[in-house]
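The aim of this short unit is practical: by the end, you should be able to scan a pair of folded records and say something sensible about each. We start with the first protein, listed as its amino acid sequence and then its structure tokens.
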Amino acid sequence: MIKRTINTNLMKKEETFRVMALGEAVKTPILLIGPPGVAKTAAVIDYAKASLGKLGNSDLFLLETDEGTRSNAVKGNVDLEALTTTNKYKINSPITGAKVVIINEIDKASASLRNSLLGIMNEKVLFNGTEKVPCIWENFIATCNEIPDDEVDSPFWDRFLITHEVTRLTPSDMLTYYAKGGKTFTQKHDIHLPQETDILAISLNADKLKKVLDVCHSELSDRALSFLPTLVKNVMCVWKMLEDRALVKTTELLVGKAIAKELAKTLVPKEIRELYDIVDGIGQCISTDEYNKKYDQLELAYGKASAGGFVTEQDEVDLQKRIADEEAKLDFLKSDEDEADVLNQFN
């Protein structure tokens, strides 16, 4: 596994960071959608820092677009020095040498600029006249406020395999942000990306994969569906999920939560879904009291699921690991020596 350590002052962006990690792992463009002011760009910059180590060099290409942005902002400009000193016609195209490509407000970009991006997004090649310049990006991330209504079915947006909504903080989240220091608040997220050996070690159940195809086929293009097995394997690694949950998560990323919930009913027993939902909320607790209430819910749900014979040995291992991961996010537990070791409750 490859670890990305993200230092950020943004709250509740871990899911966004994981989506960006998935994009990097699969080497496919992703689209972040959300209203102005929800920290889409800030989240991308924080992830880019973790990926590149530092910013300000040729490894990062960031383009702010609007209706007036010309296609040469992507294609590059004539190298005047080479033209005047060696009489050679050469185009400098910074986007081709960037490891992270960020295109902001892509919904406002002109048709010609978007067309210039297609080859870079699909074949990782910049088509510049008769010249084909290879691109080396590892992350291609675009942001927008919304996909225009008259473009929803446009093939351009299908080029983004993953579309992720970045939502606003709730009033409660904002109060927590203030309490933790506001602008001085910082936290760290460790996100893991799989290596090729990790992916090769995973085998998927063909019957379960067919269930995903059944619910997604009418919603996605053949091009998007061709990525499905690879996506599921990478989701298993990035989100640290078992196959069933990863199939549901992948469906959510591709076609939305409503269809993913319907799929979950056929793949994951209700009792197990409830368990994981509770565990996923542990890392969001802001006090010992809130944590204790969440853990009481977990004990009750676990007892019901175990008594009903729904908890497998692999579920036990996965739950213990996920509980530990969520608790590691809680600073108030680290300083409380009297806090019980919750993992022992499941032994």
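Turning to the second protein, read its sequence before its tokens, just as you did above.
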Amino acid sequence: MQQVYLNNAATSFPKPPQVVKAVNEALLNMGGSPGRGGQRMSQAASQTVRQAREEIARFFGAPDPRRVIFTLNATEALNLALHGFLRPGDHVVTTVMEHNSVLRPLKTLEKIGVTSTRVEASPDGWVEPRQIEKAINVNSRLIVTIHGSNVTGTMLPIEGIGDVARKHGIPYLVDAAQTAGIVPINVKTAGISLLACPGHKGLLGPQGTGFLYISEDIDLEPYKQGGTGAYSELETQPEILPERYESGSHNTPGIAGLAAGVRFIADIGVDQIRAKEKHLTELLIKGLRDIPGLRLYGPLDTDRRVGVISFNINGMDPATVGELLEDQGGIISRHGLHCAPLVHHVIGTFPAGTVRLSLSYFNTESEIDHTVEMVARIARRGYSSPWYTALTVS
């Protein structure tokens, strides 16, 4: 049975050979950690991390590489931004389309007096910039939105929201978990003050990598303190970047792999990657929408979405559909709430959730055809048919 990997919204797979090679070479040849001694291996590790910082900054249009802060993932980056920036009495404008990595920190910050307004979305997950503007009040200190939904695939208009943020002098934090490496992002032209990205999704790096870009006019309080490899004589956390936010040893092999992923994308061109994913998304949507009893969520227009497609089949539990796709078709998907519960209230799928298929540059047209065929077969045979009963018994 062929395997079709369609869970790239969680973790991209496969990784380019260049990424695997970079990780392996770092593990085999780089025993030191950045800033931990003047010996050759530590210097090599420092150079690897510095070059990765420079390549990421260039890729996203950030003028100062020192303001690219490495984290374990986008969740840690978002927590650093939210906990490091917000203070009692502050108000945040956000949306119902957010991931728990934004919703839960904001809920926690309510304990110290931070309030937030969740702007509603249309049934396909769209939020207009003017809706964001209407939610701003005199205490609003931050706007936070996702770029691409990990449930509906909807891409929010971050340039328009960035214009609203600039107009009102409010910093804008963007969660680019589903778009970094897939859709062109320039922090300057989009008016982004803080950009949180995972390394292990569209940027094609290994798990345990990510970063937060911090613009020049933003100062965050670090939420951890410790060894930075430099300024060891200080009793307090150094003020200089990036050390202010990067306590502890770096994941040097992971960062080397992340940099290799960014280079791979830059060599191909993010526009070409976006074009291929749009084409595959169009094929998948076209095939799925013709299946009787199947409901698609999110916009049909691929200019307004990424390759994250959620659906349900009438009368079938999403978990059952996901299990059948893997057992009978070798198709790796995901089912459930996808860590974004409020989105499911918007699209009417709470609490069961959806079946989610998420594409990458490495998927093929034949894999899409196979997936559509398997989904159609499951929908045609149905939840209560003898065919389903035989599958569950066997």
